[in-house]
């Protein structure tokens, strides 16, 4: 497995543990629909939370959350809609981003951005 893929897996694992420690119930990970993928789908307080995990080894060029483009949002929203229909979830949806970056001591730091974007941001 390529080094960046390993880092991405570590970041998704960290995000899942973080969410669980903060009262989220993980419903699924790496949900795929057509060419889209949702990293984590969770539930908390009667909401379905769709989480995009973005990790970078540095923020020199771009913050991880800045890598979530309109095209990426559109694909996440499409996959989320499919998930809700497929699993008959009739709940409000929130779209979050979890950003993971190393600090100056190389410790990985989680930044949870709740309600990071809306479905209409995809248009």
Automatic annotation (TrEMBL):
Give the species: Chryseobacterium flavum
Query: In this entry, which stretches build a coiled coil?
Result: none
HAMAP family (alphabetical)? UPF0102
Q: Which family does it belong to?
A: Belongs to the UPF0102 family.
The Swiss-Prot or TrEMBL record annotates one GO molecular function as: nucleic acid binding
Name of the protein this chain belongs to? UPF0102 protein DRF59_05615
